[in-house]
Amino acid sequence: xxxxxxxxxxxxxxxxxxxxxxxxxxxxxxxxxxxxxxxxxxxxxxxxxxxxxxxxxxxxxxxxxxxxxxxxxxxxxxxxxxxxxxxxxxxxxxxxxxxxxxxxxxxxxxx
Length: 111
Description:
CATH topology of the largest domain: 434 Repressor (Amino-terminal Domain)
Strand content: under 5%
Structural class: mainly alpha
Shape: elongated
CATH class of the largest domain: Mainly Alpha
Number of domains: 2
Order of helices and strands: HHHHHHH
Oligomer: single chain
């Protein structure tokens, strides 16, 4: 099995930015150098399992969410991903998204 280090790096970067952390701050919290983190995010280096776990813990995400392309994703994982995306939505956004999901689901099931 080949890991997609480009996708892993992008997911780490996206989570870091979502939490408004600089590379320097995340690196410090994950106990790695900023240069090493930069190389991980750009897939110029492969990250070790301990580093992956440290980064996931600092970002408060599961390691499997960072490895997503490399894992078979379960129904439960998809529901978790969706739930995480909804966490910062206000009532208006939740209503819009709820209506959209209902419409997409009805359209898909009518195929």
